[in-house]
């Protein structure tokens, strides 16, 4: 078992880059940075046996590249998330390749372990998934969802995809769309630009605060109005990623999400905030292929698009 464990830990990923005239006389370091390698990762490669080679020969990051050369990166994973306990869990995996995972997260499931909850999180389920596959495990959640928010989440499978995807998040190159149910009748579309800050005396609650808040921008489009329940299904797109941004912004304009224990504790129809991350669009960190994923509306939110509901957008496809 110990020998097998060592074999798993020594798994590596090789990346080959054929140098074209575009990169003539570039240093290896400059080229790697242009490909999304972080400074930390480049330092790691310098300290990895045969981590950086050109035409099969060990080289320095100061080496000047020439057209026709083959730059090879040997990425070795030695880090492990040993403190995360593997727990069998049903995972809805929307997409997987050797670089990333896209998971449709269930409700009532935190993405990270925390004090008092070490074994009932998405991280535990992913640890078990990797263990059953016999693969090294480092938990790298790229985008974050609240415990009770359902929908699409990206996990990076190695340090390079993590570095590139994290940069893409920071530069707003990962486009996220949400579906939410809000109280009352909301029509048309609009943009909310209202800064968000932490509520004084609270560690988790946020509010709109035009003096202390961080800039936040949310675009919305009303889709369906349910007359019986007096609720509207809304599509939302974020330009920023502030904590509780959708929940705070919708409350700010008078249409909070029912079932939200912080901002609208109305549990008549939902036992959680009615929020679902239903669409992700981004460029693959390694292949550069454009990707788009959708996750269907969860069953508890389908209540709001029953026959009695009135479509507000003719392009609606749910």
UniProtKB/TrEMBL annotation:
- Which Gene3D superfamilies did the record assign? Pseudouridine synthase
Specify the enzyme's EC class, one word: isomerase
Q: Mind listing the GO biological process terms from this record?
A: enzyme-directed rRNA pseudouridine synthesis
Please list the residues that make up the active site.
146
Taxonomy, superkingdom: Bacteria
Which GO MF term does the entry hold, naming one? RNA binding
UniProt-listed InterPro entries: PsdUridine_synth_cat_dom_sf, PsdUridine_synth_RluA-like_CS, PsdUridine_synth_RluC/D, PsdUridine_synth_RsuA/RluA, RluA_PseudoU_synthase
Q: EC number(s) of the enzyme?
A: 5.4.99.-
Keyword list (alphabetical) reads:
Isomerase
Q: Where is the Pseudouridine synthase RsuA/RluA-like domain?
A: 99-250
Q: Which reaction does it catalyse?
A: a uridine in RNA = a pseudouridine in RNA
| CDD domains assigned | PseudoU_synth_RluA_like
Pfam families, alphabetized: PseudoU_synth_2
Q: Which NCBIfam families does the protein's record reference? A: rluA_subfam
Task: Give the family this protein belongs to, as stated in its UniProt record.
Answer: Belongs to the pseudouridine synthase RluA family.
PANTHER family attached to this UniProt entry: MITOCHONDRIAL RNA PSEUDOURIDINE SYNTHASE, PSEUDOURIDINE SYNTHASE
What is the documented function of this protein? Answer: Responsible for synthesis of pseudouridine from uracil.
Name used for this protein in its record = Pseudouridine synthase
